[in-house]
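queue> holo job accepted ((S)-3-Hydroxyhexanoyl-CoA)
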Amino acid sequence: MTGPAVRVRDERGIGVVEIDHPPVNALARPVRAALLEAIERLAEDPAVRAIVIHGCGRHFIAGADVREFDAPPAPPLLHELLNRLEALDKPVIAALHGTTLGGGAELALASHYRCATPDLSLGFPEIKLGLLPGAGGTVRLPRLVGIRRALELMTSGTPIGIAAARELGLVDHELRGDVLAGALAFARERVAAGTPPRRTTDLPMPVPESPAVFDEARTALSAAARRVPASEAIIAAVEAAAARPWREALAVARERFDACRRSTESRALRHLFFAERVPAPGGAPQPVATVGIVGAGTMGSGIAIAAATAGLEVTLVDTQAAALAAGLERIARHFTDVHRKGRLDAAAAAAAGARVRGAATLAALAPVDLVIEAVFESLEVKRAVFAELGRTCRPGAVLATNTSTLDVDAIAAASDRPADVVGMHFFSPAHVMRLLEIVRGRDTTPAVLATAFALGKRLGKIGVVVGNGFGFVGNRMLYAYGREKELMMLEGASPTEIDRALEAFGMAMGPNAVGDLAGLDVGYAVRRAWTDRPDDPRFYRVSDLLVEHGRLGQKNGRGFYRYEPGARRGTSDPEVEALIRAEAERLGIARRAIGAEEIVERCTLALIGEGIRLLEEGIAARASDVDLVWCHGYGFPRERGGPMFHADTLGLAHVLDRIRHYASACGPRYWTPAASLEQLAARGARLADEASTGAT
Ligand code: 3H9
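queue> job finished
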């Protein structure tokens, strides 16, 4: 024994090192120290002829301990430990199973032999944390799989399974049955055959597949990948490995690793990694096996697909026969497509499709465990549905509304059983988008909230609990963000200038292109029904104007942009510019050139300001929740960590200063700083460090 996290024993001449550090065997400092001690001891023990490294539990090793990256690395450093492991004179066999990621995969590459069970998932996900494999992966992986493939694996971060790992020569032997027993048998064979250690760094660096392999890797990076410095760092580290002795190349990788570790992008991505593992709200979830969905439109069918894929029995209700048929058809087509694309085998796709059945009346929902209403966004329509659900559904069934802006309490009241009612706000397409806003109504019980959260998790969603208020977290912030881009269009920026500036900042799509995609009439209807919307003739005036001129977006080929039939990207339209100019004149707004910097600053400060108010009001419980909503629901760039993390990066004093600047430049109406921002800025605080309000 060397400590609780690492155990060593001698199995008739084979030294077994067992890493037992739940939940994922991360290579935290005490684990590294114990591992080093273990291998030194086995190296010196003359009775030990070979060494097997095994990870206890579901995972081999999920990598370095990400929690340690906020501080400089503490010895023993992982790359030094792995170099020592590789240098041992006795064969070292990595017994791989399950998740073998990052530093865990690097440990496997530093071992002399690798055997694995079929559940292997081996990869280098460091890039998703804004890092590069910093413990030897950049020098060892190319020696084993070639430069091009190594670059692909490390710049994508996508793990591979046993078949690909065998094909690439990363796994020498596939094990059936118990991983440790199999690895021991493999080790004994090696000893019997007198096989010596086989060191990856002794292999020559392969000749590049093409002289331009590194430039090709750079060109292949997506725009988002290019914004993360680790992408270039990976390519440069492998380039160094191709040009220099491995120890020198490893030193280059170490330097790059440390720079990436300290980068804003990596800190932002690590922040999201932990934020995404949202703790479940208190309360015991009720079991859910059957789900009813009301409304067979795009949203309802998307939710049905997500639920059926997760193994739930689904009853999809639409009182309009044609809409129901279209919804069922959409669902059937989805499952045919996922099979055709190889994401589900034929039997699984057919079984998932068969789990959805259609019904024409709400009476069919009498026995289900949970209902999600996804009908037209109108309070009147939704209240009518909930009145009937309240009467029809069995006592204790959870009743969820998918409203995106409306008052959940007003909807709940219509059911006459508001304790059972919760908001579950999905994002379209519901089977793809990972965000789920879970709205706690005034009377929602903890068990109902916990049930909605648990269901979301089962559907693969990141559930964020939010309070009830117009637009909850996401859409309320969207209105602040959108308000500024609309004002700036009246003040002189063109729709294209707005979108270009925000896309260059990293938004997945510019707001005008998003509006065209969603349909400008959708927001128009919401604003008509929004009783206390800002009393300002400029508020969303450009969007409204376009709808009033019959420009509905992509659906009719004309919105902020003009679309050729079938085209997804539009081109700027002089008619729109003329409409905006005339409207600005009518409203007496002086026009001027507005630069990209101002566009980005006003839109992001509007988001930040509204996010801080949501925290102040307790509609959002944690700054990290706001970040999750915006990164997962609205395409905020992950490498900036979300609007609240971005505010911390800018510094709250700077944020306050700029908000005050716009208060004097544009008037105080939208730019009065939240009281809490003034307090936080005064004491030099960060939003990330503030305790949860717990108010939601
Ligand atoms: C690296 O290796 C760098 C090296 O190249 C060089 C170093 C010099 N560290 O996700 P789950 C926690 S970078 C610390 O809910 P699942 C997680 O926060 C690393 N903690 O479970 C959670 O905690 P809590 C490269 C970690 O079964 C708990 O474990 N590796 C780490 O759905 C359970 O996690 C990666 O990027 C970690 N590395 O999924 C892998 N991993 O219970 C990152 C997990 O308090 N991890 N935790 O909320 C994963 O992808 C998934 O966690 C995994 C399990 C697939 C392993």
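queue> Residues 596-617 form the longest helix (22 residues).
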